[in-house]
Task: structure prediction
Amino acid sequence: MAAMALTVSPRWTSIAPWPGCCHARPARLLRRSSSGASKTWRRAILAGAASAVVTCRRCKGSTLEDMEGFPEIGEMEPIEIEEFEEVEFEMGEKRQKAEMAATELLEKTNIIRPGTGVAEKTPLPCVAVCGMGREDDDKDSVAAMLHRQLRIYKGGSPEEPVWFDLDTVASRSFEELDQSLALCRTMVVCPPLNLGDRRKIKALRDGLKLLLESVPMAMNRIIVLSTIGAQAGTGGFNVGSFFGVDFKSGSYASLEDEVTAYARKRPPSQPLKVLVVRAGDLAERPGVVEVSLTEVQGRTSLQTAADALFNALLFGVDAGFSVVDTPGGSRAPWDRLLLPCVGPEVWRQAVPDATQAALFVQQWASTFIDGSFRFGMKTPMEQKPTAAGCELRFRPVGTPTAKMMDELDEGGLEFIAEKTDEGCRLRARRIAYSAKAVIKANSERALLQQFQRDWDEAMGNAGWRIF
Result:
């Protein structure tokens, strides 16, 4: 606003109290220039200005004042005109600069960063690929395809995959097997998908059993390729075992059992995680890939099974899954297909805004912890905000107080707000479960149900499910 000048009679002219001054007293805004008093008041507030920067005479502090509510010039008492010093107006440049600086600071700190909705790649270790026959046989198999993909990915590095033929393992010495497995940190057991000869499967199991005796303690993961429905008959009363007949020795389930039995022998300080990837009956050609944490019916091609194993290694999945080929549709990338298997994911819901959801779940987690026993949870929890949501970890009664939250390994849930091409969503996945920890399904369900009730009450959203 342009500068204005005004002359007044030789007396004080006072109006409303000055709200921005640090000294609570009526502000004598217009002062005679010839009175002999100090001329430090050079910021006068005149009616008609939206705002002005004024300076306190005593503290010398400048304050940006809103002029709304001050009397207009015409409403003031008539005064005699006399020459008076010119008054300048300084608009809110300081406030604008401060707001810009605050915005830049928030952008730099990135307090809230919603996820992208894709799985992240993990460092790929040296992998032991266990198949049947030679890795360079003319006849393709899942194991040979996987071995070829890993060699291309590693590109001649020292961590190239190591091939093991389960048919000929018995002919190799323990020293040779120990040396071959020394650098391996992950093993993939890949029997042929279309193998129907139970005697051949039993021979593969015998070779696998010998190979497991040479597995180094540094190995921490084994992935087993099996078939959908392999464990369908597990449980209940086994009539065959009552008469001394073992119906599982020549089945894919026997390969799974051999690996899980070995993993249970590992000490708690050096656990071995076992994942089972299930495929359907052999399909002639690849189709649209479908991945599920539960068993689904369908057929699976050799290429799809090999791709599933390779990407399960690449993205570091934490849970087994089923993979089948379906006709029609568009093929989704593996980083989206395998995202629910990282954790694994236990809950998902669409939300209107990812940033709003992340802020809500952080505030909710910080307030509900003390009252968690109200809705059925028996295990205490601790919470920590993250860039995309928050982490909640179980702290069972008796856990040493010196154990920090990041050291807790009895399980928990992580809420992640994501902004994807399909829209915004909020997911919950399992975290911090050690190999020996028991899944706290009841506590997880109680927590998710309480969160859903609070979310619905606050946001008005309905409809949810737990996988």
User: Anything to note?
Assistant: Residues 101 and 107 are 10 Å apart (CA to CA). The radius of gyration is 36 Å.
